Amino acid sequence: MIKVENLHKSFGDLDVLKGISTTFEKGQTNLIIGQSGSGKTVFLKCMLGLFTPDDGYICYGSKTYEELTPKKRRELRKQVGMVFQGGALFDSMTVEENVMFPLKMLTKAKKPEMKDRVYEVLKRVNLTNANNKLPSEISGGMQKRVSIARAIVNRPKFLFCDEPNSGLDPRTATVIDNLIQEITHEFEITTVINTHDMNSVFEIGEKIVYLEDGHLAWEGNKDLIHKTDNKAVTDFVYSSDLFRKVRVAQQKGY
Amino acid sequence: MDYISSTGQYFIMIKDTFKRFTKGSVLRNLIIQEMNDLTVRSLGIVVFISFFIGAVVTIQTALNLNNPFIPKSLIGFAARQSIILEFSPTFVSIIMAGKVGSYITSSIGTMRVTEQIDALEVMGINSLNYLVFPKIVAMMFYPFVIAISMFVGILGAYVAGVFGGFVDGELFLSGLQEDFVTFQLVYAFIKTIIFAFILATVPSFHGYYMKGGALEVGKASTTSFVWTSVIIIVSNYIITQLLLS
After folding, report:
1. Higher pLDDT, B78 or B245
2. Inter-chain residue contact A105 with B116, CB threshold 8 Å
């Protein structure tokens, strides 16, 4: 579980996060949505420890980041997996080396043990035939799978995903969404996903947080988002003509 | 103001590079890899340039020696002094600022742009130690490159002088050994080690702290080359003043 309380972050005169409080439960897919510039990425980076909040706190399990000793902070980082928007795979390493990297750096496992674990996670993300390929030799969808495999190989307790299906075709995007949700349920991970993709919202939004101008404007889930009267949320979610028509049809009882 | 804060940031980067070390076995492989990329792969261009500059220095000296009272052995002497004292340590380092420096800046800058550095940090790895420290260690082997440059430069001078008919082989060799002061080699290698450190860290700084996209990676490489060259030239002056005057 991740608990966020009254989180503030600014850069110079620009207040990006203005007092966000929420809780992300473990074993469910938590989505952060909002327009560009609403503070989603800064919020995610604060939770990742890449930015230090100006005020408020983030609690991982039972302790806040500030309460942890440097050693415990490093231990916590080992429990975090991250799927970056562009994959952030290491160009000079093969798929297998990329996935093995966290094990090599953070554990004392022997090579055969690491290879078994890598094979296991690559199988889990349905990618067993690209071990020796470089990231530049595989498709965007495959790169995302490798990125997910690398994020979960060290059995993290917290998984963060920054727009995991951006740049993917709708079919691959759905596969990636479902994969993240399955992994979240299977390993009881606290997953936080930063997304613009409305398909993801309706597919895997077990908890949805809507940010507007650095504030938490609404929170709920994929069932409640259909029923909300919050104008900011409905304007955002139903900005697409297709989704608007679906909503009208639902309201008419089709 | 920007220059002052950048200088401060550079020294903080150096300090952070020597904190929270990466696992020994991983670091060893990285250092070997960097030695190959930064020094061994530079040998070709260094040998090529050194040979021809050595040759040109000899021809220029020979053509300007019109006075019959000046012995021809001076050609060997001048070649040795110019190659050992300045050409190999300083000017090869400026050439390396273009080759190795832009490689370091663009590779680290690309990692920054594509969030690979963020990925390292999220895993709890000290990205500065992982990326910059192996480069510093690998560049400590740079004096070997300069030693080869000195040898090849003098060889080029000999070939151009003797086979070009400018000087007799024995006279060239006697000039080469004339008034040789060992400390001049020590001076040359002290500054080579300092330049090696500059070559590893200044381009790393420009790559690591760059902001923007692919276009900015190119701009950072150019800026890095300019600053590395400027710092090498200024350091050269200071070291020479301190050690030789």
Report:
1. B78
2. no
